[in-house]
Amino acid sequence: MGLLKRDLGLVAVTDLASMRVDKTLRDAVEEAIEGGVTMVVLDEPTLSHDSLKKEAVRLKILCGMHDIPFIMMRNVDIADAVDADGIIVRFSEFDPGRIRTVMGTDRSIGVIVSNPEEARSAMEDGAWFLMCGPVSSGHDNEHKDCITIEELEAVCASVDIPVIAYGGLADADINFLRGTGISGIGAATGIFGQNDIYNAAESLRRISREIL
Fold first, then answer.
1. Is 52 helix (H, G, I), strand (E, B) or coil?
2. In this predicted model, what pLDDT tens digit does every residue of 126-139 receive, in sequence order?
3. What is the dihedral of CA 53, 54, 55, 57, to 10 degrees?
4. In DSSP terms, which residues pair with 86 in a beta bridge?
5. Burial per residue of 173-208, b for 16 or more beta-carbon CB atoms within 10 angstroms, e otherwise
6. Domains of the chain, start order
7. What tens digit of pLDDT does each residue of 161-205 get?
8. Which element (helix H / strand E) includes 187?
């Protein structure tokens, strides 16, 4: 499944650690999809390799049933084994030769970047899309690693591939992303850390439609 810009409206990044509801990861993701999520990223660094692979199989099947992309975070071997639609890696881990050797040329590569220099380099090396964040709306002083709206705009302006803003975003913050040039919004705790996963996804998807 090719990654199209239309797929990037609301990207759900799994987050078992923040879940408040007693559900399996698969059931939680299905609620998010039913609420409007357009792409799913499996990111569970605390799971063992075998457990992560089992979750990847479940989510790949689920996403296929709903005809949305399933993307693996970092684990290229698992992404290839379960026929994930793509992979996301940090800029410091981006080895396009190795990724293409393992996964071929027809699956999406996403790269997490934090500035225009990284963004341009990743694009030139074959990234299909970028993730940039966590994003600060200007009133969040808790996370020193946040990037500002102005920095996000600079990343978007430096490339001609889709950019997903992710991390540190709640409903009230989404409007700050209007006009930045992003193609999608990524949320982890903003979806899976809520008491009602369906409604959280539905709300974020509704707002994302207004600003993208």
1. helix
2. 999 999 988 876 54
3. 90
4. 71, 108
5. bbebbeebbbbbbbbbbbbbbbeebbebbbbbbebb
6. 5-211 (3.20.20.70)
7. 999 999 866 655 678 888 999 999 999 999 999 999 999 999 999
8. strand 184-187
